[in-house]
């Protein structure tokens, strides 16, 4: 997957938030955004603390791009808030599209590989 300049900018902003906000706040923002998926980008930006361009970029992702974004976000959680990543895996399935693998060593190895690849792609393309 290759990221556009707008997508790289959005991912960098998201990483800044993940790196500096407590896990509970990230979880709260995620719940609000999930509950208001069809909200106006300005309103979604207000409740999330993200910029309108980042929210608009996220809203314009196709399913493949959304999965790539989810994997990069998962790699950010793994780096900055590993306990929150495990909680998300157990409660919603990893990144909303894959069965819960949190209790499976093989499943976690496969997920780690996908997160590693996503993180490397992000770092190579967006740094």
Structure description:
The chain has 127 residues and is mainly alpha-helical. It has helices at 5-20, 23-35, 41-48, 52-59, 63-80, 82-92, 105-126. The longest helix is centred in the C-terminal third of the chain and has 22 residues, at 105-126. The two termini are 15 Å apart. 24% of the residues are buried. The mean pLDDT is 87.
Count of individual helical segments: 7
By helix and strand content, what is the structural category?
Answer: mainly alpha
Mean pLDDT: 87
Shape: globular
Order of helices and strands: HHHHHHH
Ends: how far apart? 15 Å
Q: Report strand %.
A: under 5%
Q: Biggest β-sheet, characterized?
A: none
Percentage of residues in helical conformation: over 70%
Q: Supply Rg.
A: 14 Å
Number of strand segments: 0
| Unreliable runs | none
Give me some keywords for this one.
mainly alpha; 127 residues; 0% strand
Describe the SSE topology.
Blueprint: H1 5-20, H2 23-35, H3 41-48, H4 52-59, H5 63-80, H6 82-92, H7 105-126
Helix pairs in contact: 1-4, 1-5, 3-4, 5-6, 5-7
Provide a quick synopsis of the model:
By secondary structure, the protein is mostly helical. It has seven helices and no strands.
């Amino acid at each position: 997957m290759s990221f556009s300049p707008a997508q790289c900018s959005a991912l960098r902003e998201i990483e800044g938030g993940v790196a500096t906000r407590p896990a509970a706040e990230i979880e709260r923002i995620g719940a609000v955004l999930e509950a208001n998926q069809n909200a106006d980008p300005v309103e979604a930006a207000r409740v999330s603390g993200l910029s309108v361009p980042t929210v608009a970029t996220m809203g314009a992702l196709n399913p493949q791009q959304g999965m790539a974004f989810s994997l990069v976000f998962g790699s950010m959680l793994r780096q900055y808030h590993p306990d929150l990543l495990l909680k998300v895996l157990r409660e919603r399935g990893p990144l909303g599209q894959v069965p819960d693998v949190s209790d499976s060593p093989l499943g976690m190895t496969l997920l780690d590989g996908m997160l590693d690849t996503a993180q490397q792609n992000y770092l190579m393309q967006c740094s």
